[in-house]
Amino acid sequence: MGDAVIHTSGLTVYYGAQRGIVDVDLQVRAGEVFGFLGPNGAGKTTLQRVLMDVLRPTRGSARVFGMDCRKQGVAIRKRAGYLPGELSLYPGIKAGAFLEMLGALHGGVVDETYRNQLCERLALDPARKMRTYSRGNKQKVGIVAAFMGRPDLLILDEPTSGLDPIMQQVLLDLVREAKDEGRTIFFSSHNLPEVQAVCDRVGIIREGRLIQTSEVDALTKQQFVRLRLRFRDTPPADAFSGNGVSETRRDGREVILEIAHGMDAVMTRAAALGIEEIETLPVTLEEIFLAFYDKPTKESLDA
Amino acid sequence: MLSLFRHELLSRWGAILGWGTGLALMGVMYIGIYPQFKEQMGALADIPFYKAFGVDMGSFEGLIASGVLLNLPVILGIYIIVTSSDTLSGEEDRGTLELLVTMPLRRWQIVSMKASALLTATFLMLFIAAVCTTVALAWMNNTEPVSVSLGQMFGSVMSCWPIAVALLMIGLFFSAFCPNRLSASMATTVVLIVSYFLDTLANLVEAVEPIRPLSLFYYFDSSATAYTAGVRLSDVLALFGVAAVFFVFAIISFERRDLTVGRWPWQRARHRA
Is A300 among the domain residues? Predict the structure, then answer.
């Protein structure tokens, strides 16, 4: 297990007959920002709810700080801040009073100055009743609640949801600061640019199964390489057709290729056609993510 | 943990004042009409319908008991059904429970604090009603003295609390056990109605008498003797016993519950990790 803050093994949750997550083996290291990617319904929220003991696993184990999420849930939650994906607040009370109550439930360990700073940075007026808040402001209350105790672990489910672009940046800054302070952040999202901006590693979940965990940089490199090739003369239409290579664009003497494997053959063919210029183009995490979701799953193949 | 209790109680402050005032008005109204009814009460006492239900309408105690003590637990029961079923499953439906259970609290602590707030709220409602009816009686005594003392009047209204406690804990259990607020409130309503009619029916049908102890109202004296004989300790203990059992059931159910934030399907933790 090493210095894993979160460790799940064969973690499976079924809602009756409906699949939640299946055999998820995951490790999140201390001090890292771990991005958890997946579309709606993939199982992201289910996993986080198991970690916070909102849901109980059907089988498998989930440990946080080396403690069992079920048996030692209170000790875990003392050291964790959680922002639910579907945040609902009590409409009749003021945000300030609500945050005070949450602070008290955390044993009064909240630094008031820091809490006020968070409210200021997020432009949140805590003196208003929560029924008067927009969705974004409610999300800010949840963010302050999660961060204000400076927890060792932050579990954030779609944290930028409902925030305007400026506040999204403030949130990402808060995540970076938390990481700089050595805290661990579990960052669930389907907004790929923000995951790419703050995360060290990502896990991709699909139909309840964790299909990939990787360093963000490595992930963007390992899937395919995108090349722009410029030739002396216009190359033939089927010059690069073959396994592992696809031509995504053609503009006269210029072609753009995505090469999953068979780079040698591409280079040999390009040399034979009279290559003038080669450029490697960036591949975004979003493209990688979509590539994962284009692949059929074992379940769909079986079906 | 006390901050949760405080939050729960403060969120019920409007209901405490509103329901407390409503219950008080009911008591004051019956006390207020007594001087006008006094002359006809002899005739009322002979009406077979009242006799059949064991209602003594021939005295001030009988009038107040049939008007206030008989109705008060049922009217308060409406509040109890609404609020107790809302406590866990209602909050789950709305999604506010998720953040609460992710605080460093044990689930039994959450149930206990919510239960304590409910018990305190109903106590305060009855207290408001008891104070107001006692003041009304004191005021009436100036012109129309009756045999019921101020202490007996105050005590009779507060005697509704044990049955309210039992019904609250039953509602809390259904709130922890049922998948949503609607089913929890329906189950609690059934308990209240069956309990009420079982006790009432036992006055008319002798065959029902053996199962009468299954009714909560069996342990609550809503007749005129409530003013003279006072509250029976055995009845109070029986109601508190029922409340304690259902409180424990509520904790067990909530401990086992998977919170799905108001979404179907929900499940209990049948499989352990």
Answer: no
Complete DSSP assignment for B197-264: HHHHHHHH-GGGGGGGGGSGGGGS--STHHHHT---HHHHHHHHHHHHHHHHHHHHHHHHBPP-TT-S
Give A179-226 as a DSSP string. Answer: HHTT-EEEEEES-HHHHHHH-SEEEEEETTEEEEEEEHHHHHHHS-EE
Kindly state whether residues A43 and A186 are assigned to the same domain. Answer: yes
Q: What is the mean pLDDT of each run of 10 residues along chain A (303 residues)?
A: 84 84 94 90 90 91 94 93 90 91 85 91 93 92 94 94 90 95 92 84 89 80 79 86 81 87 85 87 70 57 45
- The answer to whether residues A82 and A201 belong to one domain is yes
| Kind and range of the H or E run holding A281 | strand A275-281
CB nearest to A88's CB, from B10, B94, B271: B94
Q: What is the gyration radius of the CA atoms in chain A, in angstroms?
A: 23
Please tell me whether residues A139 and A246 are part of one structural domain.
no
Q: The domain containing residue A229 runs over which residues?
A: 224-282
- Report how far apart, in Å, the C-alpha atoms of B180 and of each of A47, A205, B87, B176, B177 are: 23, 30, 11, 9, 9
> Is there a contact between B3 and A101 if contact means CB atoms under 8 Å apart?
yes
CA gap A246, A290 in Å, rounded: 16
Residues A126, A131, A136, A139, CA torsion sign: positive
CB atoms within 10 A of CB B22: 15
Q: A190 to chain B, minimum CA–CA distance in Å? A: 21
Q: Does the ipTM exceed 0.90?
A: no
Give a yes or no: residue A232 inside a domain.
yes
Interchain contact, A92 vs B11, CB within 8 Å: yes
